[in-house]
Amino acid sequence: MSEWVDSFMEGLITKNPGEKEFHQAVHEVVESLAIAIERHPEYRDAKILERICEPERVVMFRVPWLDDEGNVQINRGFRIEFCSAIGPYKGGLRFHPTVNLGILKFLAFEQIFKNALTTIPIGAGKGGSDFDPKGKSDNEVMRFCQSFMTELYRHLGERTDIPAGDIGVGAREIGFLFGQYKRIVNRFEGVLTGKGLNWGGSLIRTEATGYGAVYFAEEMLRTRDESIKDKTCLVSGSGNVAQYTVEKINDLGGKAVTLSDSSGFIVDHDGIDAEKLAYVMDLKNVRRGRIREYAEKYKCEYHEGRGVWNVEGAECSFPSATQNEISFEDAKALTKGGVYVVSEGANMPTVPDGVEHFIKEGILYGPGKAANAGGVATSGLEMAQNAGHTSWTREQVDERLHSIMIAIHKACHETAEEYGTPGNYVNGANIAGFLKIADAMMAQGVV
Ligand code: NDP
Prior knowledge:
CATH topology of the largest domain: Rossmann fold
Distance between the termini: 27 Å
Radius of gyration: 21 Å
Largest sheet: 5 strands, mixed
CATH class of the largest domain: Alpha Beta
Mean pLDDT: 97
Low-confidence stretches: none
Strand content: 5-15%
Number of strands: 13
CATH superfamily of the largest domain: NAD(P)-binding Rossmann-like Domain
Oligomer: single chain
Bound molecules: NADPH dihydro-nicotinamide-adenine-dinucleotide phosphate
Order of helices and strands: HHHHEEEHEHEHHEHEEEHHEEHEHEHHHH
Helix content: 40-55%
Shape: globular
């Protein structure tokens, strides 16, 4: 079987040179699927896996805009419409200088399996730009978003492709993007999720990814008759996912002691309580400052650079920043320091050797495509509310989110067991997601 995986990967790498994150994401999935394909030779004959790895459509475009000094700036825009087997393309937009085709293809590919796990009929996409919103004025961000949407709009539609936010795309950017879309098409429709509450957004969407990652950790712990209560937690990042991860950890009686950004990390052994979290939200979402300022305000430790995973004395960790933020060394440091729960809010935050280490150690390891699926699931709930011209209460949405996370956990847990690798949530998530997509593709013929 490993020969089959190697030859599959060789073909994929030749066809998609230089896209290392995409290769990494596909390799993990293909390795998990070897057992499933063996049991379902019909999928091999229909070349389901080969088809899944080829995006249905990739759009790349120029995004010219004027900065505050009147200079012309040019960025590159992308939308990867990867798979519509079970619903319209759905997945976020990322604005970050590191964005390139390979990164967006990895994210869109992960989204296929994640979205299939949500129990909601949504396909998979991802997009974004190498534009960096950091250090830009609100007007510059608006002009960029308007230019970006002036091309992207023609590929979107509430039954075609519905983007959301991701790194660098929060409430402000979604607002500007939506305004320009509406202006061009002259229709008010739910073509983006993560919208403001007064104009078609859903309660709990902002909170959903972080809350969901903690619900997923709680479910993993439940398999050992434990809970988050009284557990110390390491959280990385300090953006949307990290903030609401901390909020839910606090709700459930745990204690979050770290946060980070691309400059460094803070360690607050007293815990990041509700008041301190409100400060972080203002710092990051309004003042757009650095996490270092938290340490100055609350007189706690601040360290420049990486190292958040070396903090000792925690049981749980919630990587919530970016891909490959947990190296092999970090993974070893985490388990050595006492961590036995890793619930990934970020997408693919652990390098392959690190994942292998977690699985070998038998810890509760929830991969991003399962643990962070609450965000896109709640986007699906936002779409349902838009389609019904209605809005649900906070409690209704949170209850749906919670039950979706329980269902995702159950699907991963049971599938891992059924395919002979109990406790391996990586295999569980990949196989359960794949089977759903593969069945739909078989039914729809060679398209
Ligand atoms: P935000 O932009 O709100 O926050 C990102 C955080 O991660 C910031 O603190 C940022 O620090 C840090 N970060 C980003 N890139 C790097 C880097 N290269 N090195 C170190 N730190 C970095 O994004 P989100 O919270 O929305 O997203 C975080 C992760 O969660 C991503 O992997 C995203 O794909 C994933 N995700 C998000 C979902 C959502 O609903 N938003 C849904 C599912 C997954 P700095 O400000 O210094 O750059």
